[in-house]
Structure formats: structure tokens, C-alpha cells
Amino acid sequence: MQAIAGQCRKGNVSPELLAPEAATFTISNLGNYGVEMFTPVINIPQTAILGVCTIVPRPKDLGDGVYGFVPMIGLSLTYDHQALDGGEATLFLREIKEQIENLEV
């Protein structure tokens, strides 16, 4: 896996490694089309797909009786229960959430 990642970073990965049947996971981004929620379908024989939705302002309790609008993004994970346990999938989504909320640009 590390060798493949290194090839991707260098831009010289072989096309066979990028074929759909060689992948285990897909990210489908419909956020740039303004889609607020969708349920992606797994590409067989992969094990999971993450749907990324558009960022929209949503009301949030900021504490001390103060409410404001904050940007929120919808994520939808579809996975094969034969390959992944629901607990593992939940931990994966929590990690993505943490990474997004603590993103430094």
C-alpha cells in the first residue's frame, strides 16, 4: 500500500492499479453540484464508498444562549457489512469529522 501511495504522489502509478476492480474504497463528491444529501452505492467488488455533500450554513448552539450559523458538510458512508463492522465504520466517520473540524489551512 505504501509503495502504491508513493507512486501516486510521484504521478507515475500504473493504470492497472487505478482500475475500479483494483480499488477497495471510493469517494463520491456531489457537493460541487449543490447536493445536500445522497446515499452512494458501493462499486462491486469494493467494500465502501463515502458520499461527500455540499457545505451549507446550519444553526448551532454556540453556548451561553448564543446561536449562530456554522458551515456543515454532509457525509454518507455506505459499506459492506461482510467486510466491515458498524463500529469500525463509526470510528472512521468520527475520525473524518475530527480531521475536518480541526483542519488547519
TrEMBL record:
Residues 2-104 form the 2-oxoacid dehydrogenase acyltransferase catalytic domain. It comes from the Bacteria. One of its GO terms (molecular function) is acetyltransferase activity. Its cofactor is (R)-lipoate. InterPro entries: 2-oxoacid_DH_actylTfrase, 2-oxoacid_DH_E2_comp, CAT-like_dom_sf. One of its GO terms (cellular component) is cytoplasm. Keywords: Acyltransferase, Transferase. PANTHER family: DIHYDROLIPOAMIDE ACETYLTRANSFERASE COMPONENT OF PYRUVATE DEHYDROGENASE COMPLEX (PTHR43178), LIPOAMIDE ACYLTRANSFERASE COMPONENT OF BRANCHED-CHAIN ALPHA-KETO ACID DEHYDROGENASE COMPLEX, MITOCHONDRIAL (PTHR43178:SF5). This is Dihydrolipoamide succinyltransferase component of 2-oxoglutarate dehydrogenase complex. It comes from Aquipluma nitroreducens.
